[in-house]
Structure formats: structure tokens, C-alpha cells
Amino acid sequence: MMNEDVSFQTLIDTVQGGLILASTDKGTILASNQMAAILLGLPQTEILGRNLFKFILQPEASQMLQDLQKQGMLYNSNGQMISSNGRRFAVQLCLRSMEWDMPVLAFSFSDRTETQLLGALLQKKDELSSQISHLLSLLQSERSNDDPDDYISGVIGMPKLLDKLAVEVGRSHRYGPLLAALQVAIEPIPEFEGEKGKQSRSCVKRVSGSLCVQRARDCDVVGRKEDGSVVVILPNTNLNGALQMAQRLSTALRLLRFTDSGKDYELNAAIGVSILHPGEQSSKLMLSRLDVAVAQARSKGANSIVAIP
């Protein structure tokens, strides 16, 4: 008999997951394998004689027995158990009645905690992947909307410029009226016109835009309008500060030299300056004043600066 008991215990210890045999009347545990003892947090000898259903939180014992009577077997049902030290864990369980030395309930279960955690991690990974894909598509869309030369130099396009300008206008209303802007229009070089001068025009555009970015502060915003001129937004700056910035830019642009077909060319820039007026709810009027200022600077001659407060 002893050998039979040892052989039986060895047999059920090979079963994956927990396995418990219990009486059909009261659910008293008659035998269990090592995995059941580990999952329930008890030495194997101390499990014997305990009530099986005290370890099962869901489904309720009465419901399990009713389903067992109707179906003859519960297979891969979801449930919840509690160990001897109070740890609650999700399980996948099976229950059926069988003949041993007497009619018994054969109850097997496996801990699904790791499976659920892995499922949650995989779901989170899918969500993050979806968000990253969405952000990449937005970045790609923004990149495709910007001029390739400006993408290299760091000058943003007009849609993003207007968005950032709206933020600065709102900040100016909340914290103070200081907001200025300047507009730089590079005069076309006749020799660079036409299809043959396309590469040279691209170089002028890229270098002059990059220079504006380099001369700007970290808080400034540099963008290009549809007409090709560059707008520099100057937060927390008054008219005098904007004029000083315009003078520095004009000097730096005059120092640029471009060589094409063995001939040197220099840049001429018309610069307009303006500020946001108290009470102006948007940047529309300030941008209009910049256009007028640039037109007046062009009429005055090369490398002129005109301010319209």
C-alpha cells in the first residue's frame, strides 16, 4: 500500500499546474501535487484535510458544483484563488468527478498571473507602437510640407510659424506686451534666375535661412513665408531690441559671398521691423506691418531697414 501511495504521488507530481483531489460532499482535500502546495503557499502535508473551496474565490462553490452536475466537467474556466498568505491570483481551472477509492472531485488549476501581465505588457507595447507610428506620420507630414532647403537649415514653414506665433501672442497678453518681429527679404540675384541658377538660388536660400537661425536666440522662432522672406519672432523684445537684431542680421548677410561661374556675388536684404500693439488679439496686423516695412525698405535701396511701430 505504501508503494502504491508513493507511485500515485509521483504520478500526480508530474502534472503541469496544481492538482487536488477532494471529497465530493465537503470538499475536503485528500491529495495534492507539489505544484498545488507551492501555489497555495503551504507544505504539502498541511494541505490535506483542508477545505478546497476555501481557496477558491471565484466562481462560488455552489455555482461550480451546479455547473459540474449539468455539464459533467468544467474545462478551462476562468477563476480566482487565494493562497494561505492572502495572495489573490487569477487561474484557469478544470473540475470533474471521478472514482478513486471513493467518488472524488479532481480539481486542476494553473496560475494565469504571468500570462495576464504578459498580455497587458503586449497590449501596452501595441499602444505605444501605434502612438509612435502616428507621431512619425505627423513628423513625416510636417517634413514634407516644409521646403527641403529650410528643413536642412532649421527654418520652419508658414503653418508651424503661425501656430508658434499664436502661442507667443497669447503669452504676451498674459505676461506682458513685449513681442516684436522682423522680416528679411533677400533681393534676387539676376544671374541666379532661370533653370541654370536653380542650385545657386537653393544655396542662397539655405545659407541665408541658416544664418537667421544662428543669429536668433533659443526663444526666437524663425520661419519662412510663402513669398520666400524669412520672419523672426522675438518674444519679450521691444522695438529697439528688434532694430538691434535687424542691424546684426543685415551686417552678417552683407558679409556672405557666393561664387558662381568664377564670379563673386553678395547679398542685399531688405528688412522690416514691427511690434505687437497692446490690444491686438492676433498677429495679423503685425504681419501686415512687416510686409509694408519690407516694401518701404526695398524702395529705399540695398540693405535698408525700416521699422513700423
Description:
The protein has 309 residues and is of the alpha+beta class. It has helices at 2-13, 34-40, 44-47, 61-71, 113-145, 148-153, 158-175, 198-215, 239-254, 284-300; strands at 18-23, 29-32, 56-58, 73-82, 88-99, 103-111, 179-186, 221-224, 230-235, 257-260, 263-266, 269-275, 305-307. The chain has a six-stranded antiparallel β-sheet. A five-stranded mixed β-sheet has the order 8-9-7-12-13, sandwiched between helices. A two-stranded antiparallel sheet has the order 10-11. Helix 8 (198-215) packs across helix 9 (239-254). The radius of gyration is 39 Å and the shape is rod-shaped. The termini are far apart.
Blueprint of the fold:
Blueprint lengths: L1 H12 L4 E6 L5 E4 L1 H7 L3 H4 L8 E3 L2 H11 L1 E10 L5 E12 L3 E9 L1 H33 L2 H6 L4 H18 L3 E8 L11 H18 L5 E4 L5 E6 L3 H16 L2 E4 L2 E4 L2 E7 L8 H17 L4 E3 L2
Parallel strand pairs: 12-13
Antiparallel strand pairs: 1-2, 1-6, 3-4, 4-5, 5-6, 7-9, 7-12, 8-9, 10-11
Helix pairs in contact: 8-9
